[in-house]
Amino acid sequence: MKLLVTGGAGFIGSNFIHYWLAKYPDDTIVNLDLLTYAGHLESLSDLKNNPHYTFVKGNITDPQIVDRLVSSVDLIVHFAAESHVDRSILDPLIFIKTNVLGTQILLEAARKHGTRFHHIGTDEVFGALPLNSDLKFNENTPYDPQSPYSASKAGSDHLVRAYFHTFGLPVTITNCSNNFGPFQDPEKFISRMITNLLTNQKVKVYGDGLYVRDWLFVEDHCRAIDDVVHRGQIGETYLVGGLTEDINNLQIAQKVLKHLGKDESEIEYVTDRPGHDRRYAVDWTKINRELGWEPTKDFDACLKATVDWYLSHEDWWKPLKSQSEAIYK
Ligand code: NAD
Ligand code: TYD
Fold first, then answer.
1. Is residue 309 part of a domain?
2. Is the minimum distance from the CB of 206 to ligand 2 under 6 angstroms?
């Protein structure tokens, strides 16, 4: 099989390319990535001489390049996006261009060539859940995005569904919860916290720190995409989540501090994010029932493995650190 992966130089995309080529070494992957601030070719340097992997620098909003690449593949796995909520508060327009317009341009090329399309969505499109409740998002939860990021991702999901219903394009969608693991840009909560502590800066906890995310180890996410791409029902959406039962940001910070032998004096409470979603929780019964997927990894072990990865890959994250902190100045 020949795949076009968009955004493969980003966090999840680069993990996905590694996962896929290790499991399906006879497949070939073309990685279309604009190399924005979030794209890092160093994450894929081990594949430089792999004849099954090609990198193309380009914008998913460019119809010519997209059409040319889509014409030669069997499957598109679409990760490329502006992905950071804090940046979407500072500059929403680029989120609409990349996430909405870019997805439409890819869909149009897929329609022209009849190409199978898998879209990477987020659980943030469903809005926020209250703390201390058993409520979870599922495939029937109404969309209620709260940030420019989640609104733009909701727009892209709706377009993918519309291309299925209107044009019969063979699509699937996964909406997953917050990922963590190796190669995550140091701008996101867990990667920022670890790299702050490794550069003698404090952990920045927004507001009261009692915000809950449904943490998913990135490898488990890659396996879920694999399952849906191979065995998912065309036209269907699958939610993908982790194993943690309502662990809040402060509790995660405490775990990371412990792994690094530091104490809570390293926590600094900072001004809250405007419109901050209180809690996300994902019910992944459907993908489990239909495809047998479940998150296999133990959260604490994965968090430790992630801390260890940052400890041993300073050459990867150190050059990115000042630029990712600059948006908060
Ligand atoms: P990321 O920000 O780390 O990577 C995004 C990649 O897309 C980068 O390599 C960037 O250069 C590329 N890109 C951006 N604009 C582009 C454009 N116009 N044309 C081509 N390439 C472009 O993002 P991520 O965390 O790896 O997320 C990947 C996907 O997963 C996104 O669609 C995101 O919405 C979704 N998602 C992420 C999470 C998470 O926790 N990280 C959770 C749920 C869903
Ligand atoms: P983030 O990693 O930005 O993901 P998202 O906003 O898409 O869920 O943030 C995860 C949680 O951590 C969220 O509640 C915001 C919070 N947060 C902090 O407390 N401090 C930080 O430095 C960052 C980046 C996030």
1. no
2. yes
